[in-house]
Each structure stands twice: as C-alpha cells, then as structure tokens.
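agent: user wants the full assembly modeled, not chains individually. Plan: 1) parse entity lines 2) check alphabet per entity 3) run joint structure prediction 4) return tokens. Steps 1-2 passed, two entities, 537 residues total. Proceeding.
--- entities ---
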Amino acid sequence: MIDWLTDPLAQRIVLRGIAELTLLGVVSGALGCWVVLAGRSYSAESLAHAMLPGLVVASLLGFSLLLGGALGLLAGALGIALVGRLPRLDGDVAVSVVITSLFGLGVLLGLAPEVPAGLSDLLFGDVLGVTDADLVLTAALAVAMTAVLALVHHSLLAVGFDRLSAPALGRSPAAFDVLLALLLALATLVAVQALGNLLVVAMLIGPAASARLLCRRIVPMMALATAIAAGASVAGLYLSYHAELAAGASVTLALVAAFVLASLIRAVVRASGTAVPVRS
Amino acid sequence: MRDRGLSGAVLADADDVSARYPGAGVPALASLTFAVRAGERVAVLGPNGGGKTTLFRLLTGELPAAGGRLEVPAGRVAIVPQTDRSRLDYPVSALDVALMGAVSRTRWWRRPARADRALARTSLERVGLGDLARVTFGDLSGGQRQRVLVARALVQDAPLLLLDEPFSGLDAPSAERLERLLAELAGEGRGLLMATHDLEQARAADLVLCVNRVQVAFGPPAAALTREEIERTYGAALVPLDDDGPALLPPHHHDHA
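--- prediction returned ---
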C-alpha cells in the first residue's frame, strides 16, 4: 500500500507533473470561477481550439509553442471579429465557423509527416514532459493571475452580478469582457503545453463548475475549485501511473469524476431537505 | 411632499434631448424636456420598447445624448433594476450586493473601505433587512431582493434613483413596504424616477413622464394622464370601463428590450 503511494512520487517527472497541474489548478480555481459565472465556458473552449494551427505551425517550423499558440489565438480573434461582421450571422455562429475551420486546418497541418511533436501531443498535451522552465512560467502565471484577480475582485463581482447597472456604478461591462478574455487567453496559452488543445478546457472549467454546485460564496468557491483541481491532478497522475493510462486523459477523467461527485453531493443535500446552507 | 419637491434642487434637467443608438437611423427617443427635483417621485410610463430603458441609459451617462442639453450629476445616478431579472444564481450575500454600491467611489483595483462596509450594513438595516445581511441574495423573496437593490443605491449614495418597475411581481405587503421606503427616500430629498406599466402607480406619483419613442407628456398626473395622452403613449385605443372611470390598457408583455 505504501509502495502504491510512494512509487509514483519517486519519479521526478510525476512530481513535476503534480507541481505543474497544481499551479494550473490555482489559475483555474481563480479564473475558472469567473469564466463559469459569466457563462463564458464556450469561449474558453473556442480559444483553446483556435490555437491549434498556431501550435502545429510552431512545431513544424521549430519555434516556441507559446509563440505559435499566441499567433493562433490572434488569428482566431481576428477571424471571429471579421466573420462576426457578416450580416445575418450571430456571434456564436461566427465563433463556431472560425473555430472549427481553424481546428480543422490545425489537424490537417498536424497530420503532415514533418510535424515532430506529433499531433497527439498537441491535442492531449504532455504533462509528464514538463520542464523546469515550464514550471517557472506556470508559477509566474499563477502568481500574476491571483494578484490581478484579487485587485479587481470587487469590480468583477459588481459587473458580473448586474451588467445592466454596471455603467451607473462607473464600470464598463465591455472592459469586464476584455479583461476576462485576455486572462483566459493567457491561461490557455500557458496551460496548453501540459494539457493539450483538447484537455485544457477541462482543467480551466471543470473545477469551477464542480465548486459552483457546492458553494454559496465566491471566495470559498474559488478555494474549493483550486482544491478540486489539485486533488484531481494528483488522483489522475496516480491513476495514470498504476493503470498505465495517458496522463492528461487520466487527469481529465478525475476532473469529470469530481464533477459527478459534486452533483451527487448537491442532490443528496437537497433531498435531505436542508438545502445547501442558506446562511454562511 | 409635492410642495417640498417643487422647491427642491434640480437633480436632472433635460432640454429637447434625443438619443440614438450607434448605426440606427432614427432616434430611439426624442424631444425629452423635463426636470426632476430633489424629493420628487416621477413615474415614467410607456409601452415596451417605448424608450424607458434608453432614458435610463441617458441618465446614467452610458448613452450620450445625440441632441439637446442634458444635465445630470455624473456618477450620482443609481439604477434599481427589476429583481426578477437579477441573477439569482450568483454566489453573493445581501451584504455583498449592497456593498457593490461602493465600487462607484473606488477605482477598478481598490477594495471597498471599512466605512463602506459599515454603510452597507446600515443601508440594509434602513431597508429592513439588517438581520438577513448574510443570506444568499437568490434565497430572498422578490420584495426583499428589491430592497437589497435599493440598499445598493443607498450605499452608492445617489441623489437620483432610477427604478425599473420596482413593484412588478411583488405581493401586497411587500409592495406596501417598498412604497413606504420610497416615500421615505423622497422625503429625505432624493429624486426617484420609476418606470412603470401601471396607471395607478403613475397616478400616485408627483409627476408623470409619458414616452413612446418621443416624449408624449410631462407634468402632474392630472395633466399628463388624460385619455388622449395615454392613447398617444400606448398607440392604441382605450376600452372605457365606465363613462368617466379608469380605462383599461391593451394587454402588454413584460419582456421589453
């Protein structure tokens, strides 16, 4: 039993993976809650997918995935802005058209034999391939994200609660959207290296979506989301180690399990009649 | 109350103001000429899409006037939105919501001051919700939520309050309670602008502003709520209930833009 617990930890790459995912958990705990509360989960997913061609081109040409992802995001944002101007297309349709096109283009490019990293690493990430430099970058992101969100916390809360009245309080809902989109792009960019194009969304959205089911206040929700992200990361990597499954997929599985568990707890608490506590 | 109101300071002053949304050919609202003074309760009567929301946007400064002259105290106008459109799923307490009024005085990156927290508590006490301060906003009744949103306006310390159908969906005791609270606020010199569909509420106000894409009438209820003005406001014929009694308005839906 002890061996079962300690064996994975003897592996440096597993430790690095746990550290990386826990740091990303801090990011997703704080940012993911705002994204979920603002109903922006779809944008989060779209952003991640829009990056794919950029990532593939970066690995084809041998420059940084970070830069490639950033360029991919830029192309996606421009595309959405341009297609959104076409008459008779509403915003979501514009996003879908651009994102699926870019994602398809990414897959097409990624299947070229010249791509060294392989399409699957770009799609599903490589948690166990995290370098020290990646860890430093993710730690910097976690610190910066927490600091920014702590500073603007009360403004975000006021705008998110009541967009229509926000201008009367001297706050612009548009600025709220831009800030959230920028932070989301930044987080996706950093997280995509470890989690890949498809699984990054699970990490950014899953813990917050689970915590939302159980929390009545936003700060506890953020704390719980961070804990869920960290717990699912460790559980996922153990699962991956012992069952010899892909690391990213195992973590995603653990995140989904956490969500199912949160839903069950909520259902039981509701059925027991006490409701989730009214006062806190 | 009327006398005091008319002698009060002018809180909002509109002279032939029009509003136009970007890209729209025709103005959304035109020919606005009215004034709201301290202590006055002004009912804003109009059909769905008649420009009540646009008027509120003008007064908060969100939408600049496309023409005319509009004077409102910058940053001193509070909105009390319809509570059934507020987010009931948001993880905040009544106190959190009241405290949101304080962001109007702080920068993006600042936390509310200790004094603001104290003000949020006393504002909740003023609206009779001191003992429910820690309850989740979405768990309160409609009337209680409406009063929390009034408390937010008090924390903002706005002399001019814009209330969007404050009585819609309230049961009679809640409505009476809110009515007393609004009378108190007017009594201490705040100006209240209340969007409403309800003719009876409009009749109870000090002044009535009728809008239907243009200003149809502005004045005391007796002058502004004649049969002719109401028909022009709603653009439909009225069905009289009896010869000179109240009239029945055509049915309306509540999901105006």
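agent: reporting back. Chain B has two domains: 1-76+159-257, 86-157. The first strand of chain B starts at residue 10 and ends at 19.
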